[in-house]
Design brief:
The protein is mainly alpha-helical. Helices cover 48% and strands 3% of the residues.
Length: 239
């Protein structure tokens, strides 16, 4: 029950509570996509969001599968937020989202070495969901106390820049980095990204997703939105 409870609480948060001006995931309705979430009792394999699944099945097949059974509560909560952030991204711009999925996963069979175009697309979609995951999970747990809470102790900002086989080269903290005041290199050393950006709002970052199918496109849109040209290019160019 605790496992399903954390998933339920995360979904309630994203759909009905404060999310800092972000777009909510698709809502239920006769002509709308009805999101179904499956709480899979395993921690083996990745959780996933497939917005193309379920259309025409009257909601029988789940769009989202959470596979974090037995994991810490914050990670179950955060993973649910992450997958719902993908669903919200699809709602913002379904055409660009479909292109990201094709380039980032389908055309390369999900390989961790998907080539330049695949890496660019996958890094964009997974970094966005990772940023929202950190932001909303912090919001929830800081509301419960203490206010000094950081997601998984570090907000994932101790992850090293990785050009090898690790998936962290795709699941970056870039969007959270643009929001928060911390330069993680000052705290964790030269193997982590340099981040001198701060104060970019979540609604403005979300605007950079519209019509965007490449990491570099997103970088330049955030430059235009924020005016922090050198700092944002420096941050995005860590990868």
């Amino acid at each position: 029950m605790k496992y399903r409870g954390q998933i339920f609480q995360a979904a309630m948060h994203f759909y009905y509570h404060d999310i800092g001006g972000l777009t909510r995931p698709p809502t239920n309705g006769f002509w709308k996509t009805q999101i179904k979430i499956a709480a899979v009792e395993t921690s083996q394999g990745p959780s996933s969001t497939k917005m193309q699944v379920g259309h025409g099945t009257f909601g029988i097949i789940p769009h989202i599968k959470i596979k974090r059974y037995g994991e810490p509560s914050e990670e179950i909560y955060g993973t649910t937020i992450h997958e719902l952030a993908h669903a919200a991204h699809w709602r913002i711009d379904p055409i660009s989202w479909d292109d990201l999925v094709e380039q980032g996963y389908i055309y390369n069979g999900g390989s961790n070495n998907p080539g330049p175009a695949g890496a660019s697309a996958r890094r964009l979609m997974e970094s966005w969901a990772t940023g929202v995951e950190i932001y909303l999970t912090n919001m929830r747990y800081r509301r419960l106390g203490p206010n000094s809470y950081d997601y998984q102790n570090t907000n994932l900002q101790n992850r090293k820049i990785d050009n090898g086989g690790s998936i962290f080269k795709f699941y970056t903290t870039t969007f959270y980095d643009m929001f928060d005041p911390l330069n993680q290199r000052d705290k964790y050393g030269i193997e982590v990204p340099i981040d001198r950006v701060s104060g970019v709002t979540w609604p403005n970052m979300e605007k950079s997703l519209i019509g965007t199918t490449r990491w570099e496109e997103c970088r330049e849109k955030n430059v235009a939105i924020s005016g922090q040209s050198y700092k944002i290019r420096e941050l995005f160019n860590n990868w």
